[in-house]
Amino acid sequence: MSRFLLRRLGWMILTIWVVYTVSFFLMRVVPGGPFDSEKVVAEAIKRNIEARYQLDRPLVEQYFTHLWHTVQLDFGPSYKLEDYTVNEVLAQGFPISASLGIFAMVFAITLGVTAGLVSAVARDSFYDFSFMVMATLGIAVPNFVLASLAIVLLVFNWQIFPAAGWGELRQVVLPALCLGAPFAGYIARLTRTGMLEVLGLDYIRTAYAKGLSHQRVVLRHGLRGALLPVVSYLGPATAGILTGSLVLEQIFALPGMGSHFIEAATQRDYTLAMGVVLVYTFLLFVMNTLVDISYGVIDPRVEVE
Amino acid sequence: MNATTRRIFPYLMLLLILTALGWAVSFGTLPKADFTFNNGTEIKTVDPAKATGSPEGRIINALFEGLLRNLPEKEATDPHQVIPLEPTTGGVAESYQVSADGTVYTFQLRSSARWSNGDPMTAHDFVWSWQRMLHPETGSEYSYQLHYVVNAKKYNMAEVQVGDRVEIELKDRRDPLQAFPRGTLKRGLLKAIEKPKGSSPDDAEEADSREEWIYRVEVKPTSNGKVSWDAAGTLKTFSQQPTGTTVDHSCHHVLIDFDSNVEIRAINDQTLVIKLNNPTPYFKQLLAFYPLYPVNRECVEKYGAPNWTKPENIVTNGPYRLEFRRIRDRLRLTRNPHYWDVKNVSLETIDALAITSYTTSLNMYINGQLDWSPTMPNTIMDLLRKRDDFVSAPFMAIYFYRINVERPPLDKKLVRRALNLAINKQLICDQITAAGQQPARSFVPPQLQGYTGQQCGAHDVARARQLLAAAGYPNGKGFPKVQILYNTSDSHQEIAEFIQQEWKENLGIDIELRNLEWATFLDTLNQGDYSVSRSGWIGDYPDPNTFLDMFVTDGPNNQTNWSNSTYDELIEAAKSEPDSTRRMETLQQAEGILMSELPILPIYFYVSTNLVSPRVKGFSGNIQDVHPLHILRVE
Question: pTM for the complete prediction?
Answer without folding.
Answer: 0.92
